[in-house]
Amino acid sequence: MAWIVASLETKSNGFFVQKRVGKDGKLFSVFKIKSMKKVAGVDTTITSVNDVRITKSGMFFRRTKIDELPQLFNVLIGDMSFVGPRPDVSGYADKLEGEDRVILSIRAGITGPASIKYKDEEEILAKQDNPIGYNDNVIWPDKVKINREYIKNYSFKEDIKYILQTIRG
């Protein structure tokens, strides 16, 4: 149903497919419900909650995480797991060095401790004068630290906790 609504509102295929960096630094296609439409002349570098490209249904899909449901297919085919570091676009995870590369030793996850901490990332970035700089110098390094700790202290019990926290919102 969400796919149909997204297709109608964006006037295109309601699935969003994007290459992301996964386990061992390999690229894979991540699937989501489309929540944005194309708008000529709009900077696409950083998305914020005030982005004019976000559709009305897209706002709802993002708030409720419905847009993430197609990633269950990514889990089924083995590209992702339920819990782990979120897969990122090229230019971030693939540039990790030294001990930070441990993040690429496991499958990317639908949720995880960094995702939970930064569940309001778009709102945080919308309040910044330089959202790209803030992401690159504050949020991204913190996510890397959180994800390294997650891997170092892995626990199935904690994974269950992260899943429940994500469901509760």
Characterise this structure:
With 169 residues, the protein is an alpha+beta fold. It has one domain. The protein is 41% helix and 13% strand. The protein has seven helices and four strands; from the N terminus they run H-E-E-H-H-E-E-H-H-H-H. The strands form two sheets. The chain has a two-stranded antiparallel ribbon. Helix 1 packs antiparallel against helix 2.
Helix fraction? 40-55%
The number of distinct structural domains comes to 1
Number of strands: 4
What would the principal axes of the Cα set say about the shape? globular
| Number of contiguous helices | 7
Radius of gyration: 16 Å
Helix vs. strand class: alpha+beta
- Portion of residues in beta strands equals 5-15%
The biggest sheet, with number of strands, parallel, antiparallel or mixed sense and barrel status, is: 2 strands, antiparallel
Q: What is the average of the pLDDT values?
A: 93
How far apart are the termini? Answer: 22 Å
Low-pLDDT windows of residues: none
Going across the major beta sheet, what is the strand order?
1-2
Helix and strand run: HEEHHEEHHHH
List the helices and strands and how they pair.
Elements: H1 2-10, E1 15-21, E2 27-33, H2 56-64, H3 71-76, E3 80-83, E4 108-111, H4 113-117, H5 121-126, H6 131-152, H7 156-168
Parallel strand pairs: 3-4
Antiparallel strand pairs: 1-2
Helix pairs in contact: 1-2
